[in-house]
Write a structure and sequence with these properties.
globular, 217 residues, seven-stranded parallel sheet, Rossmann fold, 9 helices, alpha/beta
């Protein structure tokens, strides 16, 4: 059976099984921009693909988040040496050996224009929460809702959504603001993320909601 957000038969099956409830929004959102760096967004890279439309969608979210003083957190995956990643990870995912701190592969897309007040988190694994201080920063900012954007839907987006869900955050995924090198993996994982961990919603819904958020005191 095809896994797709537009598959009504599978949706009915999940609804009957008790999957796919709505979490909605809390009161204090934050925007997570996951791994929008060279290794993932350049088609010339080994694991890269054309994520131009994803970048465009994120560029619609960023100015509103900045204007409304909503916290923004960027991530990349990088290591000082391959040994920091660990032997097993490098054996399973050999390209990890090339994800070295300071290389172009791990540098954010310049058009995102990250500000000095917007943390850049170097994460060692798929989830933005694993081995990082993201959770502590969200708690300090009294965040209860995370908007997850970036790539890849089947890996780091899914891993981050699962962790955020496990920590009891409201998790929102703007469908147009996440992407994957595999179209089928993207569709299947969006469906499962929506069923298990987050509300996958249209980008315009998120833009509308952010425009209504009260500016932080």
């Amino acid at each position: 059976m095809e896994h797709s957000l537009s598959n009504p038969e599978l949706r009915r099956q999940y609804d009957a099984a008790g999957f796919g409830g709505r979490v909605g929004w809390g009161n204090r959102p934050a925007l997570l921009v996951i791994d929008m760096a060279g290794a993932w967004i350049s088609p010339k890279e080994r694991i890269g693909s054309d994520l131009t439309t994803v970048v465009h969608s994120i560029l619609q979210l960023l100015p509103i988040a900045r204007q409304r003083q909503i916290p923004i957190y960027f991530t990349t995956m990088s290591y000082g040496t391959p040994e920091e990643a660990g032997e097993i990870v490098c054996r399973k995912i050999p390209h990890t050996r090339e994800m070295l701190r300071g290389s172009k592969r791990v540098q954010l897309a310049p058009e995102l224009d990250r500000r000095p007040t917007e943390p850049l988190i170097e994460k060692p694994r798929a989830s933005a929460f694993f081995g990082t201080n993201l959770l502590a920063m969200l708690i300090a900012a009294r965040v209860d809702t995370v908007i997850v954007t970036g790539c890849s839907t089947s890996g780091c987006i899914r891993g981050t959504c699962e962790s955020a869900h496990n920590y009891n955050f409201h998790v929102i995924v703007p469908a147009e603001a996440v992407g994957d090198r595999s179209a089928s993996a993207h569709e299947a994982n969006l469906f499962d993320i929506d069923a298990r961990y987050a509300d996958v919603v249209p980008l315009n819904d998120v833009l509308h909601k952010l425009n209504s958020v009260s500016i932080a005191a």
